[in-house]
């Protein structure tokens, strides 16, 4: 399991945050999540973003409420949470509301299922309505702002963050070593409409299909991964497989 850690050079992180159109990196997000851990002791999630870069998320799966910032590809950051949700529901706060390519989408859904760890046969992904950022490079700033709002019990859908001051605010937080609530602007800002998607989950591990080999149980019709069941090494169209629950 990879956890977010303090960066040994917060001054450098602070200076780069102030650069115009600079996209926050893994180091910036991990340091911000470490500061969130210090501010909100006992909070769940906030794993190092590196834990989600491989084929399988390197996290300890649990049933607790969590907040997590994830890179969904192409340097784009979102914040995900199940706070206040039903057991099979996860919310994705995306300030750009982008459509992911299929490969990135499958990997992202694996990350969501690993965090959610539900026993349900599907998970519902909700993209709540939220402020639509201007430009492309501030998604990391919005992700940190949303994470802070969630951890203090605020609904990010009701927040109008002051995008013009976000860089200065985060840079100051890095300098003093403590995160604070991001400034808001009372102006009415463009909002994105909520959307939902239901994703089917399979096997004992309750993960979505990712393209890896799976086999159907002849009795319960559930699909299983080779790594999760005692699947014969050689299988073909005539192979009759029964899972451990049905034997």
Give an overview in words:
This protein has 247 residues and is an alpha+beta fold. It has helices at 10-17, 26-39, 102-116, 139-151, 166-176, and strands at 67-71, 77-81, 89-93, 122-127, 195-200, 214-216, 223-225. Helix 1 (10-17) packs antiparallel against helix 5 (166-176) and helix 2 (26-39) packs parallel to helix 4 (139-151). The chain is elongated. The model has no long low-confidence stretch (mean pLDDT 92). It holds the Pfam family PHD. This is Calcium-responsive transcription factor.
Task: Give a quick precis of the structure.
25% of the residues lie in helices and 13% in strands. It contains five helices and seven strands, in the order ααβββαβααβββ.
Q: Record the strand order, biggest sheet.
A: 1-2-3-4-5
The number of strands is 7
Number of helices: 5
Rg to the nearest angstrom? 20 Å
Strand content: 5-15%
| Total count of domains | 2
Which CATH top level class of the largest domain fits?
A: Alpha Beta
Along the chain, the helix and strand elements come as HHEEEHEHHEEE
Topology:
Blueprint: H1 10-17, H2 26-39, E1 67-71, E2 77-81, E3 89-93, H3 102-116, E4 122-127, H4 139-151, H5 166-176, E5 195-200, E6 214-216, E7 223-225
Parallel strand pairs: 3-4
Antiparallel strand pairs: 1-2, 2-3, 4-5, 6-7
Helix pairs in contact: 1-5, 2-4
């Amino acid at each position: 399991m990879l956890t977010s850690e303090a960066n040994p050079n917060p001054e450098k992180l602070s200076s780069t945050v102030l650069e115009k159109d600079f996209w926050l990196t893994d180091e910036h997000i991990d340091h911000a999540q470490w500061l969130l851990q210090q501010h909100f002791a006992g909070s769940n999630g906030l794993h190092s973003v590196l834990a989600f870069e491989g084929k399988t998320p390197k996290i300890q799966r649990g049933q607790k409420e969590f907040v997590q910032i994830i890179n969904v590809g192409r340097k784009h950051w979102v914040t995900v949470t199940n706070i206040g949700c039903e057991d099979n529901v996860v919310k994705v706060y995306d300030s750009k509301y982008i459509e992911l390519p299929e490969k990135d989408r499958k990997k992202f859904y694996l990350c969501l299922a690993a965090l959610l760890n539900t026993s349900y046969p599907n998970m519902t992904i909700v993209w709540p309505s939220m402020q639509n950022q201007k430009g492309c490079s501030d998604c990391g700033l919005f992700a940190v702002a949303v994470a802070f709002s969630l951890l203090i019990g605020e609904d990010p859908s009701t927040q109008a963050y002051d995008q013009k001051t976000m860089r200065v605010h985060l840079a100051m937080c890095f300098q003093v070593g403590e995160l604070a609530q991001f400034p808001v602007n009372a102006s009415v800002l463009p909002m994105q409409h909520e959307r939902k998607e239901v994703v089917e989950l399979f096997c004992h591990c309750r993960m979505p299909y990712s393209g890896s080999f799976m086999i159907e149980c002849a009795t319960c019709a559930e699909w299983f991964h080779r790594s999760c069941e005692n699947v014969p090494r050689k299988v073909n169209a005539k192979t009759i497989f029964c899972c451990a629950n049905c034997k």
